[in-house]
Specification:
This protein has 111 residues and is mostly helical. The protein has five helices and no strands. Helix 1 packs parallel to helix 3 and helix 3 packs across helix 5. It is globular, with a radius of gyration of 14 Å.
Length: 111
């Protein structure tokens, strides 16, 4: 994604996939969240926060991922899949300090 911050105001599945793949930076995403003034800013934040949380979880940063999932839930955009996924991740992580188990195993792959 080379269009810069303005493209994220129309955040969609393609951009979320690029972010999860590491093709855009955390700084760019943060700038986009701060600059976002479009009508659907809560929806955009919901999608972005869930994507950030997933990537942090994949990288083994459990606590940071939980923070992003909590911020996603705070948007109140219950009608988005990302909200529901974030809620599921957050509740599961709160209920079980060792979930996901693969984070504790050096050579284990995700379940």
């Amino acid at each position: 994604v080379s269009e810069g911050v303005t493209r994220v105001s129309h955040w969609g599945m393609g951009e979320a996939i690029e972010f999860l793949a590491g093709e855009c930076t955390d700084e760019r995403i943060q700038q986009a969240l701060e600059a976002n003034t479009v009508r659907d800013s809560k929806e955009t934040e919901c999608v972005v926060r869930c994507a950030i949380g997933r990537r942090l979880l994949m990288e083994g940063q459990r606590e940071e991922a939980m923070e992003q999932f909590a911020k996603c839930i705070e948007t109140g955009v219950w009608y988005f899949f990302e909200y529901n996924w974030a809620n599921m991740y957050f509740e599961r992580m709160q209920a079980d300090d060792s979930w996901p188990r693969w984070l504790d195993s050096e050579n284990a792959s995700p379940e």
